[in-house]
Write a structure and sequence with these properties.
CATH superfamily of the largest domain: dinb family like domain
Order of helices and strands: HHHHHHHHEEEEHHEH
Distance between the termini: 28 Å
Pfam families: MDMPI_N (PF11716)
Strand content: 5-15%
Largest sheet: 5 strands, mixed
Number of strands: 5
CATH class of the largest domain: Mainly Alpha
Protein name: Maleylpyruvate isomerase family mycothiol-dependent enzyme
GO molecular function: isomerase activity; metal ion binding
Oligomer: single chain
Keywords: Isomerase
Radius of gyration: 19 Å
InterPro entries: DinB/YfiT-like, Maleyloyr_isom, MDMPI_metal-binding
Structural class: alpha+beta
CATH topology of the largest domain: Four Helix Bundle (Hemerythrin (Met), subunit A)
CATH architecture of the largest domain: Up-down Bundle
Amino acid sequence: MTIFGSAIDVRPLFPRERRAMLDLLRALSPADWAKPTVCPGWNVHDVTGHVLNDYMRRLSGSRDGYGGAIFADDETLPAYLTRTNEEFVRATRQLSPRLLIELLDDLGVRLDAVWGARDLAAPADLNVSWAATDVDSPAWLDLGREYTEFWVHQQQVRDAVSRPGATQPDLMAPVVDVFARALPYTLRALERPEGTVVQLEVTGPAGGRWGAVRRDGRWRMAVPGAEPAARVSMDQDAFWRLATRGITVEQARARSEPGGDPELTAAMTTLLAIVA
């Protein structure tokens, strides 16, 4: 097992998640498209345009080998993504909701074909920086990250228009599972004796338990131990929102139950599974 834990295969879920998103978008009123989302400065139309950007970016890069926009001088990855995402969203404001839906419907099928041809054990096209910065990511984690991206943006739209959904365990559980793979990187600054184990429990139908162990000088994903040095329990809604900063660390801590080593539990409740 690598530092990232056991592989998961989210490829069968992309069409189902997209179908739920498209059904949602087709049911929106013109006023719904203008409603603000949790993404600063972006309304529902903008978030939808951003998802289209994700589709096009991965088709261009993973299918066509096209490098895309280049980094500006001394530009960090977060700054680069903020700039290029904003540029694309600004351009998609020229597109009608109907055209956005049609493009997502067409390009999503093309992207499914790209994912379907991938060897999950091969190196990722794009490393998952919130899981590790010094070890290359496997393709399965890259695809898992993309699935969480699409699912989270769908939930942001649903929140904005007060439409619940897409939280069925089979659709949501992989999101929670992938986000839990950020646990070793979250703990990276804390040294502990060899064999020290922590446990993360996410409650709810889509939840589960994950562990990390200190081994060979770094934290690694592991099967949760019987007696962890630290443990945190949090409900599934709080967890995904914490991981994407839909809620603050303080709000997440108010919705969690820590136990054991307070420094470790404090770090665990800062888990972040996006580039920020």
